[in-house]
Write a structure and sequence with these properties.
It is a single chain. By secondary structure, the chain is mainly beta. 5% of the residues lie in helices and 59% in strands. The protein has 1 helix and 8 strands, in the order E-E-E-E-E-E-E-E-H. The termini are far apart.
């Protein structure tokens, strides 16, 4: 990752940044409160992010409190997704060998409303997730699953009502 690949538009308070253009993200520090901000990395982005971010070296803690948020990551998601709100805490321990923790992360829109807690650890090849599902429209479930979770042929089964 290169710092030049990032773009930011929005509002930030108590912002602290430290980086070197010559070094990678292992020598990067970012901390602050963000309000209705857009963060882009190459073609991937998050629009309307509100929350606190602490990013140091190869770890991140993100406290989410966003409304009308839009997320797009072509390498992970099948399409752009939007939520009425996202709340909770997300932690990433190692971006090179992902270890992600979710702490009461609540995601809600017209298709899905659920809360997730747990951990995904790529190095250990483990997924320990606990969810509370209030609502889901199964016709759209594959929009919220990683691309590699199932084939396009299998995912098309969900989009066709019985």
């Amino acid at each position: 990752m290169k710092i030049n690949d990032f773009k930011f538009i929005g509002s930030a308070e108590k912002l602290k940044i430290k980086f070197s253009r010559k070094k990678n993200l292992n020598n990067f520090f970012l901390e602050g409160n963000f309000n209705n901000s857009s963060i882009q990395y190459k073609k991937n982005y998050i629009n309307n992010f509100t929350g606190f971010i602490n990013f140091k070296d190869n770890t991140a803690n993100v406290y989410l409190n966003s409304k009308n948020i839009e997320i797009y990551n072509n390498s992970i998601l099948n399409k752009k997704i939007k939520f009425n709100f996202i709340r909770g805490k997300l932690s990433v321990i190692n971006f090179n060998n992902l270890n992600i923790s979710f702490d009461e992360v609540q995601l809600s829109n017209n298709d899905i409303d659920f809360t997730v807690s747990g951990n995904i650890n790529k190095a250990l090849d483990t997924v320990n997730i606990f969810t509370h599902l209030k609502y889901i429209d199964m016709r759209h479930i594959t929009n919220y699953l990683p691309k590699e979770f199932m084939s396009k042929k299998t995912s098309s089964y969900f989009s066709k009502p019985l």
